[in-house]
Design goal:
single chain, 162 residues, alpha+beta, 2 domains, six-stranded antiparallel sheet, two-stranded antiparallel sheet, 5 helices, 8 strands, binds zinc ion
Length: 162
């Protein structure tokens, strides 16, 4: 949706509020918005400044960058910015605000490229490829067993004595 600032400048006591639905989109390869989502925009004048407020509710479908499991996470975004008339004309060249474009930009800004299903996610075993959150494998234990390490030190010590 496009909101025309001319409308506001004509009547400074006006408060323009709109709610609309935008299409889901791909944020990054591993993070998408799978369904249409809601944007509520509010534009108003106060103390010679123009305020632009944006509330966005959306779900993200994410592939965990450690274990590759797919999951969804609900998100809320709140954007508020104030502009002088000069700044307003600089920021929104056409004299209007494209609310969907602004919402998309803000969503991208606040989405990290790497996402994990949970902070404690163990990820995949680099040796057998199993999800370590689900199964315990001994691959890495076998590779680095403290008992064997001690034994190696002992062995090298005896080597020195000889
Ligand atoms: Zn994970
Ligand atoms: Zn393994």
């Amino acid at each position: 949706m496009k909101i025309d600032f001319a409308l506001l400048l004509k009547n400074k006591s006006l408060k323009i509020q709109r709610t609309e639905c935008a299409d889901g989109f791909e944020i990054y390869e591993d993070v998408i918005i799978p369904r249409p989502f809601e944007i509520t925009t509010c534009v108003y004048f106060e103390h010679d400044m123009v305020y632009v407020e944006l509330k966005v509710h959306y779900d993200t479908k994410i592939i965990c960058s450690r274990c590759l499991v797919e999951f969804e996470r609900p998100q809320r975004l709140f954007f508020k910015e104030k502009y002088t008339l000069a700044q307003l004309n600089e920021t929104y060249a056409q004299g209007q605000i494209d609310t969907v474009e602004l919402a998309r930009d803000q969503i991208i800004l606040r989405t990290s490229i790497k996402n994990v299903c949970k902070e404690s996610c163990q990820g995949l075993c680099p040796i057998c490829g199993q999800d370590k959150n689900q199964h315990h494998c001994d691959c890495e234990k076998e590779k680095k067993n403290p008992y064997f390490e001690k034994l190696e030190i002992l062995l090298s010590d005896t080597d020195k004595e000889v």
